[in-house]
Amino acid sequence: MKSTVLVKKILFIVILLLLVSALSFIAFFRSEPVQFNNVTYKKEFSIPIPDYLTYSNNLDSSAIIQYHSLEKNIFVLVYQHPITADTLNSYFKQLTSKLTAAIDRGTLLKYYPEKINGNQALIGNIRGSVNETIIYYRIALIQTGSSFYEIIWGADENIRSSYDDDMNKTIRGFRIINSKPS
User: Which end of the chain is more exposed for a tag (fewer CB within 10 A), N or C?
Assistant: First the structure.
């Protein structure tokens, strides 16, 4: 008799745990999608920025666009560089070499070419550590008619996978305004 009561209690606990797990799973996938705000810079280009990031002007003074979330420990920076004699590939290698050298154990994991709204681009992933925290960077270098635009997303490696889609949407949403693609 005691074993029957024990089996029923265990069965009840297992069913309860399964129900809680199922509800958590449903709530996770029914959460509101991330909203993006289109940020325009001097009528030159626009870029979608997730609404959980806030404007900043103190992350890097050479960045023309800066957004971050202190709570989530992530940021997006955009830089504009004039096109010199460098090719897209050689300039990308220079930029990623500087970034990997500036962080502990910095490594360019992979990079690949892509067309972003008609413009040639290279996108790469860098991992390293800053103050003993493993940081992941997704960097894109986009070549337009007169400039290279560098977009850097930075996130703690432990949460990076939660923001992959947002990183891609921001980078792939970059648009030059009133200009022909290069």
Answer: N
